[in-house]
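Morning run. Coffee first, then this:
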Amino acid sequence: MDSLLVTLSLFIGALGAFYAFLIWNLGSWKKRGVPEAKSYPGIGTFPSLFTQKRNIVYDVDEVYRKYRSSNKYVGVYNGREPQLFVLDPELVHRILVNDFKHFHDNAIGDTFDEKSDAILANNPFILKGEEWKERRTEVVPGMSPNRIKNVYPVTVEICKRLTDFVRQQVEEYNKKGIGAYELFLRYTTEVVSACVLGIHIGTLNDKPSSFLDRIKNIFKLTPSQIAYQITVAFIPSLKKIIKTKFFTNANAQYFFNLMSDSIELRLKEGNTNRADFLNFILQLKEKKNYSNVILTGHAMTFLTDGFLTTSHSIAHCLLGLARNPKAQEKLREEILSNINEEGFVSFESLSEMTYLDACFNEAIRLFSPLSTNTKLCTEPYEFVNSDGSSFEMKKGEIVFLSYRSIHYDERYYQNPEEYIPERFLPENGGVKKFREEGKYLGFGDGPRICLGMRFGATQAKAAIVEIIRNFHVKVNAKARNDNLLDKREFLALLDGGIWLDFERIK
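And here it is:
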């Protein structure tokens, strides 16, 4: 009997200690004078991270809408990790731009290192401290307008192959609809590989492609990645000890080999004066004596910015245009008025087409490639709330930003669920006005704004131009009519996919 009581006491004591561990951090924001959102022991403010019942952005949006009117920020918990959820666009802009030196690192950088993921660890988005600045400074010239212009003829040629492939698909599948995510991933895989690595992949057909399969798998969360996210949310201190990987060993080796083969082929050709991205990488190799690991990291910065995010932006833009036929016709008129004597839209004209730019930016607003972001406080910073109360954030603490919540805020965008390109026309201030107000964050902002923004936008716009000039695009019956996001994806993808019909313009 005594032993049973002892065992029971130990068990109850262990349960009590575990519960105390779960709730240890809860209330820490209130003690510092910061309003605190409702949170659950061990799970935190956003339960969908654990339950996987819906996309986590909907948990985030509920908190945002509850506190946005009366507060500039609110304390939340990612699992057991305290984070400051910034709600005010002006304050978001200051964090990303004006007061950047206080928040110059992305918190995700804590979860990777060269041992766990050599490719991603060399990506400027992940790097921290002075290292990110050095690597970004190296990579930026590779994305210059002149270099993008030099590879534009390659893009135009692949756009023609895209049109031929769509015509073939229409003839074969007729009313079944075409999956836009798959279609435009084939396009971006082809165009980015040609522009960055100078190789022909040949994905604009129905044939299986190991390269395409690799690209699809890169952004699929594996069970181990999900388990890692949940574990470090539950025990945040583990991030300092245990790191994760984004590229699996098989995928990493595939791209290391691809990079080596591309370099070897270019050197064998002897054509090292081409003004493309591969030659830029070769110049870096010669200048800095970099290993293939670092060079592959640089190449994958170009590639990952161009594959999925660009293909998704094309698909989302065409979905918006299919839902808004008047906008589609208006864009078609702008395109036709800019076709040159050679039968295509020049690089200069593509950059100056204001309605095309508005259509593209509206698609990015609705389906931002990066829905949320977390920034590390790198220097102490004083936050002042709407009621005048303030507190000082300490170095190493985390700021949480929800770009999507701002994009869907009806106070800034009338009928935010609808695709309305006119919001971003020059006469309405253009995208620049919204970005400067912290209300447009499709590519982030400030010194760490998306590196591949110009390159990706050029590839996307060129494809949109080619499709709209050749086809009437309509929504297939299989596609949903709202913007519900897939709960299984961390990128902003429409649940059930995007299914479109393409009617050839004769």
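The mean pLDDT is 86. Good start to the day.
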